[in-house]
């Protein structure tokens, strides 16, 4: 990799830091809005879901255009609109206002993030593709952790609005910095010549994912994304609100959330190295199995801040690590010319699972479910991921067969 590629990867990682902070911002703001604006925390379930709807729609309908026209335009415009809509969120005064701004934020992020993941894969050496993608997407747990750790100081300085002003301004700065650095061309790493011609002949490249031989690998990939996203958004939407019910203060709950998310950084990088250099199926079984065990342990024990923090580092950190690792798996399942489409449409399908997370959490909160039972529910999606991970070798085999047929001499 040359210097420009390294700078590009650092800035792309910054987008994920911004995303992580932005995701956490709403969750951290909700318990503070009851006093500031008189808004009931239980009513924010659909506000969290609006972000997911936007992410899914933007990922499926807009992000695949990066496979045809190049990544830079989608990344920079998506980053810019994300910044503006996040700044707009700070002006909301009603649940409807928050919902509209979060929907717009999700659309912009959905258009941007799959192209960030795909471009990271294109810039990475083939033998370290999953690892580089994970290091770049490590910005998500970093952003989540920074939001949790810095929230008390930001709120003291700028009020709850500061939780949106900070990531919004950062996104706009990133958009300005990325435009001259990123290469504007059409993707094509590792493909044979004619990538641009292929793109021109495929006005809707995402449709290929629902045809043989790619439908099975895509089903496995999307199902893993969906169940992990359910946990990711259930936990990151409601953890700062649930933990005070276990005896923690608001500031302590924010910091525990930050520490748990930061643990995902180390778990994600370690799992990605294993994905590149070890058994992909066993790596995923170990990751999601550990998550399930940690949530089961919380369910079986009485609240204790130290013990629960350690267990949440494995469980919540593992959910964030899954978000880092799974895009790297896509680089092994699909060729480069399909990567933005696979990640983008995968994000849409994943939102079907993620949609369940915030409303489920809101329902449990409204019905006064105990914190340990709330967190114990997260073991179920983690166990589903363990079962799906067992199908990964068969999914990888499909690409091997396609490439073997393409290399076979004609006649």
TrEMBL record:
Membrane-spanning segments: 45-66, 73-93, 99-118, 130-151, 163-182, 214-234, 254-275, 282-302, 308-334, 341-362, 374-396
GO molecular function: carboxylic acid transmembrane transporter activity
Listed GO CC annotations: plasma membrane
UniProt keyword annotation of Transmembrane helix present: yes
Originating organism: Aurantiacibacter rhizosphaerae
UniProt superkingdom: Bacteria
A Pfam family: MFS_1
UniProt name for this protein: MFS transporter
InterPro entries: MFS, MFS_dom, MFS_trans_sf, Sugar_transporter_CS
């Amino acid at each position: 990799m040359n210097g420009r590629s390294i700078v590009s990867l650092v800035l792309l990682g910054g987008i994920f830091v911004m995303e992580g902070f932005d995701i956490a911002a709403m969750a951290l703001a909700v318990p503070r809005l009851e006093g500031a604006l008189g808004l009931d925390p239980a009513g924010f379930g659909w506000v969290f879901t609006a972000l997911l709807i936007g992410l899914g729609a933007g990922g499926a309908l807009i992000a695949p255009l990066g496979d045809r026209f190049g990544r830079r335009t989608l990344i920079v415009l998506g980053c810019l609109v994300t910044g503006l809509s996040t700044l707009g969120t700070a002006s909301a005064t009603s649940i409807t206002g928050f919902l509209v701004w979060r929907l717009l934020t999700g659309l912009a992020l959905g258009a941007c993030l799959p192209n960030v993941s795909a471009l990271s894969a294109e810039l990475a050496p083939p033998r370290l593709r999953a690892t580089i993608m994970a290091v770049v997407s490590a910005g998500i747990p970093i952003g989540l952790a920074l939001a949790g750790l810095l929230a008390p100081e930001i709120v003291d300085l700028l009020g709850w609005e500061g939780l949106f002003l900070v990531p919004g301004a950062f996104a706009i700065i990133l958009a300005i910095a990325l435009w001259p650095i990123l290469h504007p061309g059409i993707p094509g790493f590792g493909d044979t010549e004619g990538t641009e011609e292929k793109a021109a002949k495929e006005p809707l490249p995402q449709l290929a994912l629902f045809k043989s031989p790619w439908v099975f690998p895509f089903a496995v990939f999307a199902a893993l994304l969906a169940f992990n996203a359910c946990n990711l958004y259930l936990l990151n939407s409601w953890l700062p609100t649930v933990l005070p019910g276990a005896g923690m203060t608001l500031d302590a709950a924010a910091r525990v959330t930050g520490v748990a998310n930061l643990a995902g950084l180390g778990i994600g990088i370690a799992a990605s190295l294993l994905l590149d250099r070890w058994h992909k199926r066993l790596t995923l079984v170990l990751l999601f199995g550990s998550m399930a065990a940690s949530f089961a342990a919380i369910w079986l024990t009485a609240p204790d801040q130290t013990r629960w923090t350690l267990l949440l580092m494995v469980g919540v950190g593992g959910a964030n690590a899954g978000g880092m690792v799974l895009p790297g798996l896509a680089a092994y399942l699909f060729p480069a010319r399909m990567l933005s489409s696979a990640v983008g449409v995968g994000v849409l399908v994943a939102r079907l699972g993620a949609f369940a997370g915030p409303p489920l959490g809101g329902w449990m909160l409204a019905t006064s479910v105990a914190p340990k039972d709330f967190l114990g529910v997260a073991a179920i999606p983690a166990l589903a991921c363990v079962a799906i991970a067992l199908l990964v070798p068969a999914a990888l085999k499909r690409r091997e067969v396609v490439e073997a047929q393409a290399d076979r001499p004609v006649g």
